[in-house]
Amino acid sequence: VETSLTVRVPAEAKVYLAGNATTAAGEVRVFKTTGLSTGKGWNGYKVRVEMERDGQLVTEEKVVDLAAGETKEISF
After folding, report:
1. Parallel, antiparallel or unpaired: strands 56-67 and 20-21
2. Relative to the CA of 27, which of 12, 41, 60, 72 has its CA 20 to 30 Å away?
3. Helix %, strand %, coil % for the chain, to 5?
4. Rounded distance, CA 75 to CA 27, Å?
5. For 18-45, what is each residue's pLDDT tens digit?
6. What is the DSSP letter of 37?
7. pLDDT at position 4, please?
């Protein structure tokens, strides 16, 4: 099954999933996986966003739970 997470961020933001930097760009970033078996999930999955605002590094983190086959969307 395909599991999908859509992250809405400012275009210049850097996005990290579970501590790993991503290479996707733009304001809407979609991350998909087929690595979760039916009935499985990721609980406490950390999504961190970093960007520069007024010369300062701003970091925001959200934690989501994703079940196999689920589609979720979060905004920063």
Report:
1. unpaired
2. 41
3. 0, 65, 35
4. 10
5. 999 999 999 999 999 999 999 999 999 9
6. P
7. 97
d(CA 73, CA 17): 14
Helix (H, G, I), strand (E, B) or coil at 5: strand
Backbone angles phi, psi at 36, to 5 degrees: -105, 125
Cα torsion 27, 21, 59, 35: sign: positive
The reported pLDDT for the residue numbered 7 is: 98
- Locate 31 and state its tokens: 């991350």
What the block records as the tokens of 19 is 């501590």
pTM of the model: 0.90
pLDDT at 32: 96
